[in-house]
Amino acid sequence: MWQWTAIGEGTINYAAIWARLKELPTPLPMTVDLPLSLVQRDGAPAEPRADLLSLSEIDSIMDVSRRRILAGLGETELT
Q1: pLDDT in tens, 2-58
Q2: What is the pTM of this model?
Q3: What's the rounded Cα separation, in Å, for the pair 49 and 8?
Q4: pLDDT digit string (tens) for 46-69?
Q5: Dmax over Cα atoms in the chain, in whole Å?
Q6: Do residues 30 and 8 lie in contact, with contact meaning Cβ atoms separated by under 8 Å?
Q7: d(Cα 7, Cα 1) in Å, to the nearest integer?
């Protein structure tokens, strides 16, 4: 089963992504899309989670993700 998590917790090699983004001559606009209310089982279409997260859990996951993005890009604040 696949479940979306905070950036940096999972199987994606973010170190390679950060390194590539740092090589770009100008910063790119970015968005973060974490469909935290979905799960995906064995390649099937994503479906709603049975146990929806609370707003405080979502806020916490987004804060962790933001901090990891900043650290990965070597920034102190997103613009």
Answers
A1: 788 899 898 889 999 999 988 988 878 888 888 999 999 888 999 999 998 999 999
A2: 0.79
A3: 21
A4: 999 999 899 999 999 999 999 999
A5: 44
A6: no
A7: 18
- What residue ranges do the domains of the chain occupy? 2-73
List residues bridging with 28 in a β-sheet.
none
CB proximity list for 5: less than 8 A, separation 6 or greater: 34, 61
Contact status, residue 47 vs residue 38, Cβ threshold 8 Å: yes
Q: Quote the CA–CA distance of 79 and 8 in Å, as a whole number.
A: 20
φ, ψ (nearest 5 deg) of residue 34: -120, 100
Q: Could you tell me the two tokens for 40?
A: 């995906």
Measured between alpha carbons, how far is 27 from 68 in angstroms, rounded to an integer?
17
Helices and strands: H and E segment counts in the chain: 2, 3
Q: How many CB atoms lie within 10 A of CB 56?
A: 8
Instruction: Please give the single-letter amino acid code of residue 9.
Output: E
